[in-house]
Structures are given as C-alpha cells and as structure tokens.
Amino acid sequence: MGDWLYLVIAIAVLAVALVVGLVVGRARRTPSAPPAPAPGLRTPPPPPAPTAAPTAAPTTEAPAEIPVEAEAPAAPAEPPAPALERPDGTASRLVRLRQRLAGSQSGLGRGLLALLSRDRLDEDTWESIEDTLLTADVGVAPTQELVEKLRTRLRVEGGEDARAVLREELLTLVDAGMDRRLQVSGAEGRPGVVLVVGVNGSGKTTTVGKVSRILVAEDRTVVLGAADTFRAAAVEQLATWGERVGVDVVRGAEGTDPASVAFEAVKEGLDTGADTVIVDTAGRLQNKAGLMDELGKVKRVIEKQAPVTEVLLVLDATTGQNGLIQARVFSEVVDVTGIVLTKLDGSAKGGIVVQVQRELGVPVKLVGLGEGADDLAPFDPGAFVDALLG
C-alpha cells in the first residue's frame, strides 16, 4: 500500500513537469505582439537596413586643402572711368555768340535803326535815340559821343546808309582795336597764372570752370585752385568742373587760408609742368579794406613762385550800375586786366560792354551766353555789333 502511494505521487509530479515544459517551449516559439501606439501618434516605419560599403583602409594623412584662390570670391568689376568731355572749339563758340546775341540784343539795334531811318531826324528823334542808348546801359558820356557823331554824319553829310553808319560808329564805341587775348602763358618754363575775381553770385566759379574748358579745347594743360574756401559749395562745384575735362583741382578744408591754397595750386602747376593755373577767389564785399587785404595777400603769395599773367573780373551783365560799382572796387584792389560779362544773352542791355570798358580802361575778353558748359566765348566786337543790328 505504501509503495503504491509513492508510485502515484511520482507519476503526478512527472506529468506536471511535462505540461510546464510544453507551455514554456511554445511561449518561446511564438513572438509577442508589439505594444499598441499611444493615441494621436504614428509609429515611424523602421529605417531601411544600411547597405554595406567597402571599408577604406585607415589613413593618417590630413585631407588636401582647397587653394585660397578657389575659395576667394571674385572681385567686383570696377566701374569704367567716366569719359572726359571734349569741349567745343573757339569757332563753334563764336557762331553761338552771334546766334545768342542776335536773339537777345537785336531789339536795341532795331530800335535805333527804326529811329535813324525816319525821313526827318528832328530833336524829338534824337532824344528818343539817346533814351534808347541809355536804357541799354551804354552810359551817359558814350551815348552823347555816339549821338553827336551820328548827327554829323547823317544830318550834315547826308546821303549815307543809316545802318552802315551806325555799325561803324558802334564798332568805334566798342573799341575794336583793344587787345582781347587771354594772357595764359608764363615765361621761363613757368605756367601762366590767371586770378579770377568778382562778387559771389556773378558766376565767378562757373567762369573758372568754363575758362578751363576753353583752354583744354586748345590742348593746354590746366590746374585749378579752389581758393574760395569760405564757400564749401564753390569748392565742390570747381571739383566737378575739373572732373568733367580731366583737370586737377587743388583744394583745402573749409575755412583754409585762401592764399595757402593758391600757393599750392601754383606749386602743383610748376611741379607738373602745366601750361596754366587758374585761381578762384572769394567774392565777399563786406568792406573794401578786408577785400583788399585778402586779394592782395593771395596775389603776393602766388608771385613768390610765378607772376600773375591775367586778372579777370567777372561781372553780371544784368546788374547795370551795380556792376559798375563792383568794377570800381575791384579795380582799386587788384590790377584788373580783363573783364568777363556773364548772362549777356539774357539781357537787352548790351551797352554795359561799352560802359565798363570806359570805366576801367580794360577790354571785355569773354562773354557768357547761357547756362551750358561751353556757353562762354571770346568777345568779338564785330560779331557783337552785328548781333545788335540784327
């Protein structure tokens, strides 16, 4: 009995062991299901298996460097230098002189010819002729002189063409025999030095630029001196004129002593072998003593290196008697050798040419005909008189 009991217990234990072994083995062969993803999330697909690449043999050498030239960005292309302007020559300027003057001054000539062509030249007619000349700024003394000559030739001599007589007498009045050449050449290898004076607003700085264009058109080398240092705008304006025709401009800081700038300009002209140096000056007219001191100093400093060959006084032709007052002041301060009349094309008062020449005893050498860069021409008495007569 006892043996059978032990046998039954042993068989039961063996059966339980077999069942447990079968369950564990099956669990190992069956893969477990993946856990459910959390709500709102997507499980990304597994990445593809990497493709086996041939393994390179390890090396201890540093990788080759890229040349610096290859890495540097290409330099930006420099903008082309602006083409220098080629100013008009003297011939074309004289043609323009005749055209402009004929348009603005012919009223004076037509008025005189209409009066002189009357059948009877009585006192009222001669008085009208005087009024016409005075209105054109010819001046009292030149007007009386012209009227007396016309009276003699047309009333006493008679039989002459009024237009031919008037032309001849006007040429005498303008003094066609005056030397109107610009003195822009120096001696002994030194440049000619042109000092340009005049009140601010008369067109002085613009005239300096235009004169430089005339000289460049004649194949002369030029240096400009921006000695109007009290006006920054004048210095910048002159620099612009220089850039347009390839002319060097010597300048200083605002407020620099004008004489020092003039000195450096002449020095550069000497060093570079320039033909001409043109010096722009300040045009302040607060008092004559101050103006005299400043311009006198500029001229003295310049002449330590080279003599001043020309002093040009710039006058606005439209200012009439005010222009004459300015002319007197400057002629007392510096030795004016020539006159530049600006804005002559816009004024019917061409008689200022006669009056200012009589006042100063120096010739009008240049006339301004407009705002264009080449609208400055040598004064030609014949062209001027012909333009007056239309």
Automatic annotation (TrEMBL):
Keywords: Cell membrane, Cytoplasm, GTP-binding, Hydrolase, Membrane, Nucleotide-binding, Receptor, Transmembrane, Transmembrane helix. Residues 32-51 have a biased composition (Pro residues). Part of the signal recognition particle protein translocation system, which is composed of SRP and FtsY. This is Signal recognition particle receptor FtsY. The keyword Membrane applies. Involved in targeting and insertion of nascent membrane proteins into the cytoplasmic membrane. Acts as a receptor for the complex formed by the signal recognition particle (SRP) and the ribosome-nascent chain (RNC). It is a peripheral membrane protein. Its main location: membrane. NCBIfam families: ftsY (TIGR00064). One of its GO terms (biological process) is SRP-dependent cotranslational protein targeting to membrane. Residues 363-376 form the SRP54-type proteins GTP-binding domain. It is found in: Cell membrane; Cytoplasm. Residues 52-62 have a biased composition (Low complexity). The chain crosses the membrane at residues 6-25. Residues 29-62 are annotated as: Disordered. It comes from Nocardioides soli. GO terms for molecular function: GTP binding; GTPase activity; signal recognition particle binding. Belongs to the GTP-binding SRP family. FtsY subfamily. GO terms for cellular component: cytoplasm; plasma membrane. GTP binds at residues 198-205, 280-284, 342-345. Its EC number is 3.6.5.4. It catalyses: GTP + H2O = GDP + phosphate + H(+).
